[in-house]
């Protein structure tokens, strides 16, 4: 199927163009929705065939270099439009297209009746097209093209309901904050090209393979790339855009938060794992940022009442977990959690969309309650998704999160491990607070006007499929004492060089099985305890007093937005207004341009005075001119 692989990006592009140009004229929801979904399903099937072909090959042969055409050729710069398909990129590819297809199908039911139905599916296809370029690109520039493409598509999707002011503000915030990270990515690319003369990723990794550990140039490149990753994957200090991105339709939240755009930073660091192995200081920065982000976002989620914002902060926290794994040199574990997170977080976001759909647009969980028996499919699937993210065995989130916590203990010591345990405890608590207030207890909504109901099958079938994946997905990465770690073996060739470098300065620790089982038991006991506490507290809660003290701080998200507003946004706005505009622009630029114009104008006015219109004056001047010329000729 390699000869048809170009279709995997071409088809979503066709879907974008057809729905974007002809969608309104076609004016048929089923045709637009299913055509758009098909443009994602076919690439998924092609990816499956490549996956099975890889399975039949020895590990070292599981690579495809697909060069389609010369994209940029000028001077020393030569960039091809080419894909690099290996076990890492095909794994991400299957997640993006597989879950992307389910979200497309779900959207057919969720967006029913929306006037911009075809436009929405056009944007979804554009997003998939950009994301596939990002994960398949063989060079940094093509990856950056996809990187910017998903930024543009997310801007269009978050602000999809553009007639509501807050969606436009959220879309602009996401776009601007991501540009800060992109600046780091671009500077890193400039450094790579000027130093190594190539933007090909494998060429770059080949060039740095022989360099010494701790090279300052590699440290700079690694930190700049990580700045880009912080923007796209919503890490401190650039995490503020992601919760506000909930303003868009819920399928967008599922697509962006679960499987695609926000994982781009994880993918970038994993793809360049050799760089981070050679720059351990940068890897420590990745670890610290990951731990802080995971903990802070989890504590904020404890006091949020918007069902989607709770899940949004949960996503920020889980992305922090993935960076913790990367910072602990457990590269394949980060990808493992990325995959399991895609399953259960897509399930939870689509489940929240089903709740919002059944509650006629209500998103505040303090105004819900008692939905357990009125939305049974949504309840059961959400229940299992909540167990998975809480780390209850044998669901998917348990295996991946437990492995991250174990690696953190072994590699980084007990302090970092305790911080991850606290974060995991918060995760279980806020998820079951959400469950308790939404599905249990007495209804707290106006039962005379709100009639919760189950969603249509186009929405519930994707929920059921994702529930199966969230339940069984963890078995691809079993701990060694339970069976083979299939994902670890699958990804081993991708990270082999990085692991070899790390082993030179960070010898592998051998931990007893008793300790490993003890750490596993701690994570399960903590999760179960938090679930019980949350359910006892919130299933019967009917009144919601105003939070006080630290609870107020958490409800206001540590006032990070306010701090950014006061410390960065307003000074820039006032500086632009009072200095750049009123002094530099108006007085200096405009003053110079207007001064030149006024001088020319006055000069023209003076010269105009000689144009009197009196024939005697012209005759006199002509005679004077002739006299001057004659005198000049006589005495020269």
Offer a concise description of the structure.
The chain is mainly alpha-helical. The protein contains 24 helices and two strands.
Give an overview in words.
This protein is mainly alpha-helical. The chain has 24 helices and two strands. It is globular and about 120 Å long. The mean pLDDT is 91.
How do the strands and helices of this protein lay out in sequence?
Blueprint: H1 7-26, H2 29-55, E1 64-74, E2 77-85, H3 87-110, H4 117-136, H5 140-158, H6 165-196, H7 201-208, H8 216-232, H9 241-244, H10 250-259, H11 264-271, H12 273-278, H13 280-301, H14 307-327, H15 331-358, H16 376-390, H17 396-412, H18 414-439, H19 457-472, H20 486-505, H21 513-538, H22 550-555, H23 560-608, H24 615-635
Helix pairs in contact: 1-2, 1-4, 2-3, 2-4, 3-4, 3-10, 3-15, 3-19, 4-5, 5-6, 6-8, 8-11, 8-13, 10-15, 13-14, 13-18, 14-15, 14-17, 14-18, 15-16, 15-17, 15-19, 15-20, 16-18, 16-19, 17-18, 17-21, 18-21
Features:
single chain, 636 residues, mainly alpha, 24 helices, 2 strands, 73% helix, globular
Main sheet makeup: 2 strands, antiparallel
How much β-strand is present in the residues? under 5%
Question: Ends: how far apart?
Answer: 91 Å
Instruction: Write out the strand line-up for the largest beta sheet, numbering strands in chain order.
Output: 1-2
Helix content: over 70%
Total of helices: 24
Rg result: 30 Å
- Write the element-wise H/E pattern from the N-terminal end onward: HHEEHHHHHHHHHHHHHHHHHHHHHH
Can you tell me the overall shape? globular
Structural classification: mainly alpha
- Provide mean pLDDT, rounded: 91
Instruction: Report the strand count.
Output: 2
Q: Poorly predicted ranges (pLDDT <50, ≥5 residues)?
A: none
């Amino acid at each position: 199927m390699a000869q048809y692989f170009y279709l995997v990006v071409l088809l979503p592009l066709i879907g974008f163009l057809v729905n974007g140009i002809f969608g309104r004229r076609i004016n048929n929801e089923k045709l637009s929705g299913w055509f758009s979904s098909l443009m994602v399903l076919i690439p998924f099937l092609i990816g499956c065939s490549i996956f099975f072909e890889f399975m039949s090959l020895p590990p070292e042969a599981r690579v495809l270099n697909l060069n389609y055409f010369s994209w940029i050729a000028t001077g020393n710069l030569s960039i091809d439009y080419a894909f690099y398909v290996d076990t890492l990129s095909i794994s991400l590819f299957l997640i993006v297209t597989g879950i992307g297809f389910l979200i497309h199908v779900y959207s057919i039911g969720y967006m029913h009746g929306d006037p911009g139905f075809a436009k929405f599916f056009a944007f979804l296809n554009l997003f998939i097209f950009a994301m596939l370029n990002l994960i398949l690109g063989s060079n940094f520039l093509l990856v950056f093209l996809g990187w910017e493409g998903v930024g543009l598509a997310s801007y269009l999707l978050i602000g999809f309901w553009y007639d509501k002011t807050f969606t436009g503000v959220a879309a602009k915030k996401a776009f601007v904050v991501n540009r800060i990270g992109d600046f780091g990515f671009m500077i890193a690319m400039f450094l790579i090209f000027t130093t190594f003369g190539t933007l090909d990723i494998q060429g770059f990794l080949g060039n740095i393979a022989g360099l010494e550990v701790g090279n300052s140039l590699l440290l700079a490149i690694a930190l700049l790339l990580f700045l880009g990753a912080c923007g796209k994957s919503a890490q401190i200090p650039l995490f503020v855009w992601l919760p506000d991105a909930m303003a868009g339709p819920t399928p967008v939240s599922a697509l962006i938060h679960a499987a695609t755009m926000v994982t781009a930073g994880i993918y970038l660091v994993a793809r360049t794992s050799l760089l981070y192995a050679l720059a351990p200081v940068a890897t420590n920065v990745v670890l610290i940022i990951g731990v802080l982000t995971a903990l802070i976002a989890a504590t904020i989620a404890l006091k949020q009442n918007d069902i989607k914002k709770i899940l949004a902060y949960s996503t920020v926290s889980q992305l922090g977990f993935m960076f913790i794994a990367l910072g602990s040199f457990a590269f394949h574990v980060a990808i493992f959690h990325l995959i399991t997170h895609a399953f259960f977080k897509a399930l939870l976001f689509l489940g929240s969309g089903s709740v919002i759909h059944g509650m006629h647009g209500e998103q505040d969980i303090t105004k819900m309650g008692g939905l357990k028996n009125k939305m049974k499919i949504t309840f059961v699937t959400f229940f299992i998704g909540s167990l998975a993210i809480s780390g209850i065995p044998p669901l998917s989130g348990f295996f991946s999160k437990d492995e991250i916590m174990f690696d953190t203990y072994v590699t980084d010591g007990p302090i970092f491990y305790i911080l991850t345990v606290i974060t995991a405890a918060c995760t279980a608590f806020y998820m079951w607070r959400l469950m308790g207030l939404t599905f249990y207890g007495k209804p707290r909504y106006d039962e005379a006007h709100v009639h919760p109901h189950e969603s249509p099958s186009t929405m519930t079938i994707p929920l059921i499929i994702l529930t199966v994946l969230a339940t069984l997905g963890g078995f691809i990465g079993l701990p060694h004492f339970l069976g083979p770690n299939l994902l670890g073996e699958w990804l081993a060739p991708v990270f082999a060089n990085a692991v070899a470098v790390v082993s030179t300065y960070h010898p592998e620790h051998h931990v007893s099985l008793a300790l490993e089982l003890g750490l596993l038991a701690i994570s399960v006991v903590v999760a179960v305890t938090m679930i019980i506490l949350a359910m006892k507290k919130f299933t019967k809660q009917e009144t919601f007093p105003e939070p006080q003290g630290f609870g107020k701080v958490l409800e206001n998200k540590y006032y990070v937005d306010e701090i950014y507003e006061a410390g960065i946004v307003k000074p820039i706005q006032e500086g632009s207004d009072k200095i750049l505009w009123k002094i530099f622009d108006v007085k200096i630029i405009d003053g110079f341009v207007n001064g030149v114009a006024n001088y020319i104008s006055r000069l023209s006015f003076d010269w105009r005075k000689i144009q009197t219109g009196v024939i005697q004056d012209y005759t006199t001047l002509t005679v004077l001119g002739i006299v001057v010329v004659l005198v000049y000729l006589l005495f020269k």
